[in-house]
Amino acid sequence: MALHIFLSGCNAAMSAVAALFFFRYAALTRDRFHLLWGVAFCLLAANWAVVGATAVQSEHHGDAYVFRLAAFVIIAVSIIDKNRAR
Questions:
Q1: Helix, strand, or coil (residue 59)
Q2: Which of 6, 29, 44, 61 has the highest CB neighbour number within 10 Å of its CB?
Q3: pLDDT at residue 57 tops 80
Q4: Contact indicator for 68, 47 with CB cutoff of 8 Å
Q5: For the chain, what is the domain count?
């Protein structure tokens, strides 16, 4: 149980770090693609924080994974938006 909480915290921290990198690139390039990926990684960090804090060990409890669904929808939208701009 403690390992699950520790690894969820690691995932949350690394997702937050990835979000910071994407926000940095969004500021440098003024590209909406990087901004949306940064938002998606913030949502993934929130997902892992909730999973670790509530000790959800089963994928059958969907309430904790709403953040993950929103993140993947944002990623899909950003890819579609980037390809439509061409």
A1: coil
A2: 44
A3: no
A4: yes
A5: 1
